[in-house]
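Forum: Protein Structure Q&A
Topic: Joint prediction for protein chains with partners

I've read a bunch of threads here and the consensus seems to be that you should model interacting components together rather than docking separate models afterwards. I'd like to see that in practice. Below is the full input, 646 residues plus whatever partners are listed. Could one of the regulars post the assembled result?
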Amino acid sequence: MDISALTRTINDQLALLSYGDQPTSLYEPIRYIMALGGKRIRPLLTLLGAQLFTDDLTPVLKPALATEVFHNFTLLHDDLMDQAPLRRGQATVHEKWNPNVAILSGDVMLVRAYELFFDVPAALLPTVLRRFSQTAAEVCEGQQWDMNFEIDSEVSIAQYLDMIRLKTAVLLGFALELGALLGGAPASEADQLRQFGTAIGIAFQLRDDLLDVYGDAATFGKRVGGDIVSDKKTFLLLTAQAQASAAQQAVLQQHIGQPVFDAERKVQAVTAVYDELNIRAQTEALINEYFEAALAHLEQVAVLAARKEPLHRLALQLMERES
Amino acid sequence: MDISALTRTINDQLALLSYGDQPTSLYEPIRYIMALGGKRIRPLLTLLGAQLFTDDLTPVLKPALATEVFHNFTLLHDDLMDQAPLRRGQATVHEKWNPNVAILSGDVMLVRAYELFFDVPAALLPTVLRRFSQTAAEVCEGQQWDMNFEIDSEVSIAQYLDMIRLKTAVLLGFALELGALLGGAPASEADQLRQFGTAIGIAFQLRDDLLDVYGDAATFGKRVGGDIVSDKKTFLLLTAQAQASAAQQAVLQQHIGQPVFDAERKVQAVTAVYDELNIRAQTEALINEYFEAALAHLEQVAVLAARKEPLHRLALQLMERES
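Posted by a regular:
Agreed with the consensus. Here's the joint model:
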């Protein structure tokens, strides 16, 4: 199946999931956030990972959905922690209901995510659950680092890259590894795919950082410069701070971390420093490095190149590149 | 092993658990809440349940701890939702750290609870995990009903009993069922023990409601009348409201749900209505009914009566009864 057919299958299967009935205040928010949509990248990666090794995706479907339910659980709790008012243009759960509903609905989503694994064949179940649990804990660690970095004055680029690896990339890696394992791949191949997915995930997040500053507002769908306005310590800002001259440091300090400011002027001034330091090209180079490393892992997977085509194409799509 | 030896074993094993290291702001709160103590009833029930059927508790220990880690996860999130300042006389996690730390540390505790099951023999693992997940979701449902009841004007006694069954009792039932399954019991015996534990759990919670009003402040360890002060819809209040004369209704309405009040007068007035309606004896009768039903389930378990002695004794201890 190609990517759009697989995505349809995933959405059809998601629509069939039942999370629970009563009390409605517990289960309605789960149906709400799951219905907000999204690209369903994680279950797609699981199915594409499995398709490398098998043509029978039936037993892979339910576990594939687990990664999507888990991902939406993290969005639900993260939105509460970040006090975000909107998610995909709609009110977040803690806004539409209240914070307590967001906590408890999220908790039960995590339980439901686990449940989607329990039909996995007995021989694979412990491995799959151990890897999922490790990944889930790492995603929590990433979110905690992200919150810590808002307060920490000193954050290194290495720390930042490790944070996005944990918060975003390891789940993409696990989604692929899961598909490979369920498709019957040996552990070594599953691990190559995990590394492919993790590297793609880091590249994807760096690209997100880049688009926040250099993206087209219309296609990016967010306000350009949002990270700059909120003093977010992204790869761009940390690199600029590490490389700035005394004069450039002064400009950055004049704008970053100030309680009162003109947003437009702030974005302009910080972007000007980025431009002087060639931050865009440096970020693109690092994205490319992770992307190439990802492809090298995919290359290592011992199946016919033709079978890798859909996965290769999805990776390119995620980077919005032609080749 | 007797109850005190088992409790020591549980505490020794809990002290050996490692939840994670970095970031410390994620893992320190887990070590903190787990170190606050408690009677470790749930793992104790698991070990006592297993001991009915086996003398080798070694493979039961880790899964037994899962119920304690899960229980403390629910306390951590419930304290945040209830905005409770204290837990076992110490600052709650959201007070000592902050609400976001409480959310995220709790999330990772739920993951760690699952992980403690993964060494369960492959033949039992899916059953154990399905039953645990069902129980975990039910506990969340119970907490949501409890929060709903704070706002709902009409709560029936049946709804209240179902709420405490979900919020408190099913986890005690699962703890026993888990022990029985791991001890090698057939499903029918494990289910008898589940029902025994669930009935004990409901009796235990009703006793807690009773002690809030009629307990000795020194031994109960909480302020007498706390439930009355906070308008908590307990079995006592709901029964009184269902049976009150017009004059007694008026007294209850004069005190319950008022924004401003004298706490001592409120407790006195509501307790006086309880006394007139004989609520204490009615509650004791219901506790006894659940307790007797529990013992009947224990009776049904096909092992020698002598093996049931420690479990029988623990049940009596939980009711603080001699026999």
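Residues 3-319 of chain B form a domain with the Farnesyl Diphosphate Synthase fold (CATH 1.10.600.10).
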